[in-house]
Amino acid sequence: MKKLKILGFLVAGLLISGIVGAQGATVLYNERVIEVANTLPDATDLWVAPEDLTRINDFVLKPEGACLDALCIPVLQDRDSEMFVRRSGQDWFNVTVLADKLQQAHVTDYEDGIWSFGVMPLERTPFLKGGVAPDFELADRDGKLVKLSDFRGKKVLLLTWASW
Amino acid sequence: MPVWQAIYEELKTNDFEIISVAQDSGGEAAAGPIFDAANVSYTAIIDVNHHISALYNLVNVPSGVWIDEEGRVVRINEGTYAKNHGSFGTDEYAPIVRDWAINGANSPYVWDKDQVLGHIFQRTEDAERAQPAFLLGTHYFTHENEEKAEYYWTTAQELDPDSWNYLRQDLLYEEGGSAGPEWRARRTAEEGRGETYYAPLEIEEQANR
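Structure tokens for the assembled complex are given below, as produced in the milestone run.
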């Protein structure tokens, strides 16, 4: 019993010091469901390791910032900043602050640690301002991925319906 | 669906494709049999998260988007039924689809960019937040947590009250169903405000083509 208690203190201590981010999270991002094994515990925000950031939304943490293709959001990394902290040699990135900067909607079930993100407004602009068809990648009924942009050169009738 | 299947079989060699996307959180069990019954050979997708409606700002079904060879939207409509079913539906839409599949950019039913932009449903900032809420609800629905599914689906409806899809998907699992008293009351109220359940198809030939 005593041993267990000590172990418990040890784990709590590690959690507080950020050595072990034992709190996992599930992230819903478009059609992706990403299980993140470790996060930096935080009451309101989602902090993940840089490699998990990329698994979630394809952003890559580089010296110049968090980057997706040509887009780079500056991130201070030589000290703690709103999107970046280092705890015991482990880097953590704040996905929710990045989403807020991108004006990307997100909804969280804190009880279960599930974070759901909307589409980035930046990605919406070509459609809303230019009439460019938003690309998508969805599995068909046979499990084969269907990507709209693979149909370039064809006229595509996109129909929605429902059984209800 | 037999109407679309016939048009597809006739014109698929004319660089024409149909992508039919069921907005059904019930997945294969809900929408699969309908695809099967129609024996469709075009692309069939069951979109449990209503991802396509979220991406294209569609609020109702059926909806139809024409996408040209360069990936531009050239027409966007709701109420795009294959045929008239009596109490609902229309025989007007399928013929213009066929015309476009044959004539492409020369079809008189193709819209220019400004017309397309004018027909994209305008969403409020709140409505943009409805998508991640609905996604979360569907995640719980899929994992059989009805209480939380209901909570987040309801949140999505509150954030995006213009979406008939979010409303009816949820009503399907409640007493009365997706086309029951609550849906009828909401529809009657909307029509009472002088609005239409489906935006008009606006099938007029463009003169200057």
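Residues 1-21 of chain A have pLDDT under 50 and may be disordered. The first strand of chain A starts at residue 23 and ends at 29. Further analysis is deferred to the final report.
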